[in-house]
Task: structure prediction
Amino acid sequence: MTSADWMPSASFAVLHRRSEVLAKIRVFFARKNVLEVETPILSHACGTDPQSSHFVTVLENPDRSHLYLQTSPEFAMKRLLAAGSGPIYQICKSFRNGEMGRFHNPEFTLLEWYRVGFDHHALMDEMDELLREVLICPYAERVTYQTLFLRHVGVDPFQTTEQTLKTQAASFGISEIQNIDKDGWLDVLMTHCIVPHLGQGGRPTFVYDYPASQAALAKINLFGVAERFEVYFSGVELANGFHELQDPLEQRRRFEQEQEQRQKSAFPPAILDERFLESLKQGLPNCAGVALGIDRLIMALLKTNSLAEVMAFPINRA
Amino acid sequence: MSNFSTNELKAGFKVRVDGDPCVILENEYVKPGKGQAFNRIRIRNLKTQRVIERTYKSGDILEGADIVDMQLQYLYNDGSLWYFMDQENFEQHAADKAALGESGKWIKEQDVCNVTLYNGLPLMVAAPNQVILRVADTDPGLRGDTSTGGSKPATLETGAVVRVPLFVTVGDLIKVDTRTSEYLSRAKE
Result:
């Protein structure tokens, strides 16, 4: 601790802009009749994402049950959708343990919204509209994941092998990484060789249609493509969206598969959200949803160098 | 020696990369929202002084490098090794030509140098930033000769050659900046 740690790391001018952005977002969704909701930060269950680490706390009940700080409000929001909420949005804190850096803070603010009857293309249209209003930027560029790999790396991510990706990474001077699978190599090339080119010149880039192995919670279409998209601005990822998977059996299968991956990489097992799975059985409407990092959005708007410049108190001052 | 997880590395940490001792200059955490986390580090190889970038999986382990900086007094050289002494315990350390590098042409007996030890052996010797050395050889300066920009080469007692003003003569003591090889001033005994 230093004596200046009590002070905010963001200026008040920035905090005013931050407040204006949040107000604009609420006006945007009010105009479109999307309902603002709040869901629990603490849950008995947690996401199975094979790369994410959770904050855990203990409830002072006789069982002293564990509660997890949510990495995203997605499961609870989909339960609302299954219960008939119609279109909803939420601005909330989310938590990812151990994620710290210029573009990461373990506690961060997400805007997450869901649109009933939308697919990922329709939701990209709406995302574009929101970004144009908030960032005052031109229409986004849209490009498939496959096109980006062909353009920047010279391989087709849907056809290639782990070995080819490894060789390509080596040609970019990255050869020291060990023990990662094909998706790991795709991530290496995406983050190191492609992402720095995305969303440049003040124009956002939307990347869509991912390999099925990176579907996460997205539907996989008849062509074996995951109906997922991401938003980039100035080489930084801002958002991740899905045409949401509705099939409860497929969802359980993916959870279990991710559980196995967690075990392999020595992450503690996740607690499957059975209430979420039950809601899928009852029927999630056809919908698309997306999570947008608010702190990074403000960074993009104000062209700052780090998240710390747009947050009152990042983790090292928390 | 302790080991470090790639996500705890900070600027200044010393680690072994490809068997060579390196110092961390920068560590950037890279992670897609969904996907593998990496640490992209910029490091300086302390043997070659080259700066390189490396990417590791977040949480991978790098071996710490046993690196210490010590202030040691230069004693003498025997033609192949340069001997330095710890003035507290009188322990001697021998540095080879590679460790000495450019510093060899600036130091003379009894100078105190910063010596970087790797696994207990001298890896790098840094001459003091400024040294005072005697001029062993230089042409007599001719007044009004401006064709050489008002300076001339001078060979110092250690063998180093620097450019000095025309008024400097053999036997003078001069102060030199060892980082730039520049003459700074004349010095007194």
The first strand of chain B starts at residue 3 and ends at 5. The radius of gyration of chain B is 22 Å. Chain B has a mean pLDDT of 90. The first helix of chain B runs from residue 97 to 100.
